[in-house]
Each structure stands twice: as structure tokens, then as C-alpha cells.
Amino acid sequence: MSFHALGLSDELLAAVADSGYNEPTPIQRQAIPLVLMGRDIIGVAQTGTGKTASFVLPMIDILAHGRGRARMPRSLIIAPTRELADQVAQNFLKYGKNHNLSMALLIGGVSFGDQDKALEKGVDVLIATPGRLLDQFERGKILLSGVDILVIDEADRMLDMGFIPDVERICSLLGPNRQSLLFSATMAPPIKKLADRFLNDPRMIEVARQSSTNANIAQSLLMTGARDKRDTLRELLRAEEVTSAIVFCNRKRDVNDLADSLKRYGFRAGQIHGDMEQRDRLSTLEDFKADRISILVASDVAARGLDIKGVSHIFNYDVPFNAEDYVHRIGRTGRAGKTGIAVTLVTSADADLVADIEKLIGARIERRGAAPLETGSESKAAGKDGGDKDAAPARGRSRGGRRTKGGDRKAAAPAPEIVAAPVPEPEPEPEPKAARESKAAPAPVPAPARPTPAPKAAPRAARDEDIDDGTWNGPVPDFLSVSARD
Ligand code: AMP
């Protein structure tokens, strides 16, 4: 099926063709005609399915006629994080290039600019995170009664981050005759309740990403000692054919420490986590997309839903506390039909977390490295996996308060070719000597893994304050809308 069958305008079809997309994805095939008909929809779909275009494309055509009035946006998209909001904005720019729509982005963490004038003048599309939108509403900068189309994107993430009350409040501020589109990877009861309350006779569209995409991801677990993780990671980065990689840590301070460490060893690395200023996060992302850095060290919240093309590898430096996060992490690779590799560093303390993940994905992940991992289900001989006597418990593990000097240092020596190249080691790791003595064997590229079924919702574990739960700890300047096209 081609995009031509969906009822989109010629201008829009031209922009889609320029993007290089020939065929609509399943969610686009199902959603676009319904949205054009004015129906409310619930899209049960994750990032990677093409869901953004499934609402952006028909919205552009619907909004093509008419004009935004002062402080009264005609459409509103709420997204859980700034990066996601920015990505939706990029989609509007890409597909709306033949239209003359005005757009504003209302997110925390970026400074006030002249884009508030665009809001004042009236925008067709307002993309916002819930908290910042309510702030501006309360300051009288926006009236929401003129919104004809509402999109709630990644409602499951809103739920995780405690935003559902804000979303309900926003919905109650909108006029009654709007069209509403809700997207969520899961339909947990609070999301169902939200839909029941604020959507009007919605059509439910469900697409599974995991069954198709995960077939392209070769997953493996690499056993290592808790104190050998950095050595092991560096060996992996040198041994694997890494063109671009995201390395996930469970804690924000570890994101900083690890990224700084990799830079000291000559890797082109950058970091992204929730304590960074918005402009730094966006510029790191730009650096990664433009291949100025090839390794992005990230926390879960900062990286969730990011659409970065061509990520060859995912490395889980820490096994995620929530099995569901594992699925989201590895979903950053193997996108759009490409193959990807996901390697998780595992210590003996991580057995329970691994068992949770395997239960969720319904498959056993390939083990590599010398020591076996004893998960409850596979052996009674737990505790005999050797080589990791120094392993700290998975929760509350600390690096003794060691902090890095600054977040934004450039790589000491550029190392564009990581694969099998001897990387200079200008500044040795300030790690205890004893920790360096038991080194994990470097691992070969793993064989393709079995397909994994779609995940079920997993309970989220209690989090300590250094885990990136989306809470903004840095300064929060005023809003800025990034783009207005009138
Ligand atoms: P999303 O699920 O919206 O995050 O999109 C995932 C990725 O798929 C993005 O890189 C999109 O640019 C890409 N994409 C969207 N629609 C299509 C399509 N019809 N064909 C191929 N790729 C697409």
C-alpha cells in the first residue's frame, strides 16, 4: 500500500516522498484515514512504529486551512519529555515544509525567547510538556479553549512520571468539541480511565513493534566483575563493530562518570541525563546525530523514545532495575529494518534482574563470558559464579562519591575509528588497583537472538534520587518555542 491511498494532500505526499518513505507503517495505515475523518483514536503503539507521523501527517492537512488566533493554539500535543516534544516538532517541520503552519514548543529547561511572540500572535500547533503548559496557562499566556485537536503522546510514560493528574487538568481546560488522539505503549488502568473520561467514542488501533523489530536485535549478556565493568565496556567498544552506540546507566552520576572516563580514554563520547540543562541535552543529541560523537552515555528517562537513526549497538552498563526499561533500551537499535546488537554487562548481583527481564520478554538471552549466571529458574547452585567477589549489590551501589570535574569536556583525543584500533589511554582510570586484576575476557559479536514477544507492563521499582525519573533538578528558565513558520 502506498501513502497515496490514505487521503493525504499532494503537498503532504511530496514531503513524505522527500523523507524517503514509500510505504506507510501499520499504525499510519490504520490511523491516518480515521484521523482525517475526525475520529478520536487510541493508538496502542510504541516509538519505532512510525506513530508520530500517524498523527502529524493528518494534523497538517486538517490544520492547513485556518489560522491560529492570539494565545489560542488550534492543536495541542502533549509529550512527557522535552526530547520527545522536540522530536514531534522536528516531524512537523519535516512533513509540514510545504505548508505554512506556525508552531510553538513549550518545554521546561530552555530560556525565554522571541517565540513567545509567536504564541501571542497565535499558533496552529503547540507542542508542550504538561508542567510547562500548565505554568504558562496559569500565567495567562495561553487559552486552551480553541484547541480543535489534542494529542496525548506516550501516555504510559506520562503515567510512569506521575503526569496523569496534569494531563487530566489540561483535558478539562479544553473545549468539548475537539478531536482527541491518545498514544500509549500499554493500556494500564489509569490510561484507560483517562481515555474513557476524555475521548469521544475512540477507535482503538493496536500495533506490536517488539515481534517485528526485536528479531533484528542480537541480544546477549556478558558476565563481568562489578569493578571490571569499565574495562569490559572499553574492550567491547574496541572489539565490536561499533558505528554508534548508546550506553545505558541506571544512575545519573554514573552517566557523567562513565562518559568522562570514556572521553579520557579517547572515545568520542557524550552524555545525556535529566540533570543536564536542556540546551546541553539537545546539543549532545545533535552531536550524536551528526556523528561528532559516536557513543552516547544515557539514563533511561533521557533516552526513552529518542529516535536516532543508525544506532549499531546498545550497551547496558547496568542491568536496568525495571525489566520494561530493558525493552525500551534495546529498542533504540535494530530500527527500521536494520540489525542491531544489544549487550548487557551482568554481575553476579544482577541475577534477579536478569530473571525478571527474561520473564518479561519470554526468552532466554544468550550468555557470554567465563562465569555462568545463576538465575533462580535455571540452577540451584547460586553463588558459585566466581570472579566477582567484589560485586556490590545491584541497588544502592556507589562509587564512593567520586565525581568528575565537569560535564562538557571535549574528548582528549578524537578516536573516529574505534573498531579494533588501539585506543590511547592518556589518563588511566582512578580505580582501585585490586579492581583491575580480574579482567573479563573480551567477547565476540553475539549471534542473532530469538525474537521476543511484546512486553507486558512491569511494576516499576522504587528509585533512589540519583535514578533519572524525569525530575528536573537543574535551573528551569522560561519557555521557548523553537519554531514558527509564518
Ligand atoms: P516513531 O515511531 O514515530 O518514533 O518513528 C520511528 C522511525 O520511523 C522514525 O525514524 C521515522 O522517521 C521512521 N518512519 C516513520 N514513518 C515511516 C515510514 N512510513 N517508513 C519508514 N520509516 C518511517
TrEMBL record:
Residue ranges of every copy of the Helicase C-terminal domain listed in the record: 232-379
CDD domains: DEADc (cd00268), SF2_C_DEAD (cd18787)
Motif extent (Q motif): 1-29
Residue spans of biased composition, Basic and acidic residues class: 381-392, 430-439
Stretches assigned to the DEAD-box RNA helicase Q domain: 1-29
Composition-biased stretches (Pro residues): 443-456
Keywords: ATP-binding, Cytoplasm, Helicase, Hydrolase, Nucleotide-binding
Stretch list, region Disordered: 371-486
GO CC terms of this entry: cytosol
Catalytic activity, reaction form: ATP + H2O = ADP + phosphate + H(+)
Record-level Gene Ontology MF annotations: ATP binding; hydrolase activity; nucleic acid binding; RNA helicase activity
Matches recorded under InterPro entries: DEAD/DEAH_box_helicase_dom (IPR011545), DEAD/DEAH_RhlB (IPR044742), DEAD_box_RNA_helicase (IPR050079), Helicase_ATP-bd (IPR014001), Helicase_C-like (IPR001650), P-loop_NTPase (IPR027417), RNA-helicase_DEAD-box_CS (IPR000629), RNA_helicase_DEAD_Q_motif (IPR014014)
Domain Helicase ATP-binding: 32-205
Biased composition regions of type Low complexity, renumbered to the chain: 412-422
Record-listed E.C. numbers: 3.6.4.13
A biological process term (GO) from this entry: ribosome assembly
Assigned protein family: Belongs to the DEAD box helicase family.
Protein name: DEAD-box ATP-dependent RNA helicase RhpA
UniProt lineage: Bacteria, Pseudomonadati, Pseudomonadota, Alphaproteobacteria, Sphingomonadales
